[in-house]
Amino acid sequence: MILDAEVFERDNQVFMSKVCPTHGECEELYFGSYEMYKKFSTYWMDGKGAHSPNVMIDKCSCPNNCGLCSNHLSHSGLANMIVTNRCDLTCWYCFFYVKKGLEGAYMYEPDHTQVRGMMKTLRAERPIPGNSMQITGGEPMLREDIADVIKIMKEEGVDHIQMNTNGIRHAMDPEAAREVRLAGCNNLYLSFDGVTARTNPKNHWEIPYALDSCRKTGTTVVFVPTVIKSINDHELGGIIRYAQKNMDVVHAVNFQPVSLTGRMGKTEREKYRITVPDCVQRIEEQTNGEVTVDDWFPVPSCMPLTNVIEAFSSKPKYELSIHFACGAGTYIFEDADTKKFVPLTKFCDIQGMLELFEDKAEEIRSGKNKYFTMLEVVRKLKGFVDTKKQPAGLDLAKMFGNILMKRSFDSVGSWHVKGLFLGMMHFQDKYNEDLERLQRCDIHYVTPDLRIVPFCAFNVIPEWYRDRIQKKYSITVEEWEEREGVKLEDGLYRGLMRRGAGDELAAGCAKSQMFHDASQATM
């Protein structure tokens, strides 16, 4: 049921408290730093919302009827399509994959007609047609026709396609990696939970081979660590250092503090619960202060840049208007001489630049000549950059100028070639679900019943969304096995790359090459 909740500060942390008439009070850590919460809250903005909603309602009934509704406040920044709920791994903390023998288990794999219908629904979204798609699962590479699925997305007009994967098939089958790249997959959203075998048993041995396949095919990579307190939160700095070693192909690390699903007592939740500020603090400690707490900004802080581009072009533009507590990010650039990372905030007045963008957007909206105004913006950009502290080989003002004038994917891409994006996205769960956050969500799922559902409704309330919708378009595991002539468990990965590795590599942890590379990287 929907409950009233109080969000309050105690001991410089932010908590949420709610009282269920049946089960009593539940108190949950909401945000690990009140100081960061106050800083981030200054960037609170409402987005454009859904101008062509699939669910028309007169009064908000969130989250009872998502799809998107007329009260949702953000367009689809990134759309997800589940192409299978099969997976070749059985990670203990995963909230979503089919497992034979479980009550209610089903096999969900939309066919090509359903895929095309979902894509048409996304592209029909207004005022911003959906243009960025993540293929997810389960493990998408288990579908033998995955390249055909990608081709359908490209045919329907999507520019950017990334695949959420464990990378095992990319490591084992370079030809399959080549096939999906040629079909139109730009980027791998690659699961990567640590630099040791103990923290990342799922693909520790396979990651280097997957990266090699991406190099050969021209596929960029985002490392995606699921961060769990007491499990791998001591290796966040090591993950960044390993990304630095592979910056020719790895352009971002997007940390995801774990969502706690299932029935868990308060003591167990406290053992595993970690929030955005907690991760940011650990990164400062584990990078020896190279990347500090002050270097991070909430996702909606980039809205002023959207606003000035939108005012200049007189057309609605892509925006990131999510709730300030949902995520954070920063850019770090490698100095060409010292090979050390220098965060953007160390040589750029970010706050001053954002205020310039907002002021000039307002001037254009008020009738001032937009061409002269934009030239003035570009001319003033250099004043916000300390060229003495700017990393060697980088011209930040020129990069910003290109984004403002060209307003294209290619111009934004130059950021990722020169630097490394560090992101943080904390998806909600039943213990900390906040409808103010949900109504601003811009990471959505497209579904075969032609709805667009926010992430933290789709997965947090699977009884209403994920499972209820997908079961309508699924078959039983037994039916699938009979149709395909194989057993579900036959698709499980047996760790082939680990065989014959010898005791030293099998021991993993501090003895592994990955750990050595991370420890040797300069920070």
From TrEMBL:
SUPFAM superfamilies: Radical SAM enzymes (SSF102114). CDD domains: Radical_SAM. Residues 73-298 form the Radical SAM core domain. Pfam families: Radical_SAM, Zn_ribbon_HMPTM. The keyword Transcription regulation does not apply. One of its GO terms (molecular function) is methyltransferase activity. Keywords: Iron, Iron-sulfur, Metal-binding, S-adenosyl-L-methionine. NCBIfam families: rSAM_GDGT_ether. This is Radical SAM protein.
